[in-house]
Each structure stands twice: as structure tokens, then as C-alpha cells.
Write a structure and sequence with these properties.
The protein is an all-alpha fold. It is built from 3 helices and no strands. The chain is flat and about 55 Å long.
């Protein structure tokens, strides 16, 4: 067995150990979060607010993209890069 093959086995063993540690952490954390009534995933107030913000931003940009619709993707990218658009935060 050459040296690089040994390192490969070492990294694989470390990755497997890390997987076990993460799995154990999650196995303990999920019931604890559930006991605290934490909502995990799915639709919530913040996700709905994010969706609404995305819809509003899309509406703001609709006229710009309609104006550029006849351009190639490359020409559209060049034109968009030349404009100053406020970044959404």
C-alpha cells in the first residue's frame, strides 16, 4: 500500500467518525427541539415574509427584463452589469 492510499483510508475513517458524531448530535437535538415546540422546516412567518419580498423584488425587476427580452443572454448580462441596480438585502 502506498502512502496516498494510506491517507485515503485515514480521511475516510475521519469522515465516518464525523458522520457518527453529527448523527448522534442530531439524534439528541431533534427531540429536545420538539420538546421546546421549535418548528423545524416547512412554512413559517419568516418563510412567508421571504416569499413576499421575493415577489415584490420580481415585480420591481419585471419591466427591466421585459425591456431586455430580445437580447441574447450574453448581451443581457452585459447590459445588466452596466446598469446600477440596487441589490436586495
Amino acid at each position: 500500500m502506498n502512502q496516498s492510499h494510506g491517507y485515503l483510508h485515514l480521511f475516510a475513517a475521519l469522515a465516518e467518525q464525523e458522520r457518527r458524531v453529527i448523527s448522534e448530535r442530531m439524534r439528541l437535538a431533534l427531540p429536545a427541539a420538539k420538546a421546546r415546540d421549535v418548528l423545524l422546516g416547512g412554512t413559517n412567518r419568516q418563510s412567508l415574509a421571504n416569499q413576499e419580498a421575493a415577489r415584490q423584488r420580481a415585480e420591481q425587476l419585471r419591466s427591466i427584463f421585459a425591456e431586455l427580452a430580445e437580447l441574447s443572454a450574453r448581451a443581457e448580462a452585459i447590459e445588466l452589469n452596466s446598469r446600477t441596480l440596487r441589490r436586495h438585502k
